[in-house]
Input
Amino acid sequence: MTDNPKVRANYARHLAAQKRMQTGIAFDRERNDIADDGKHLRVGVNTALVDAAALVGLLISKGVITEEEYSEAIAIGMDVEVQRIERALSERYGTKVTLHEAGLFGSGTAGSGTGAT
Output
């Protein structure tokens, strides 16, 4: 991990948004009894992660981008994804949904421990 405080803050922001995204997906899956094939999902996710990490490593090593720029971009990207999921859930359930990190709730908590309000 880097000593750059901006990079550390961006990674923390990304992780917090990622947890909110997971909350939204879990909330929706719980309420819609969505079945999946975990093996295929895991293979797809792992493949995407490896591909993205390799590309980012290459871009940073060649000086095309910096780690600070990358960390800021992924934090912004995850925030956008959370907003997209909040809009979709709000439309589906007919009420404003605000996602929180799992275990953190606002007023009007929906579900049991999902972190969606």
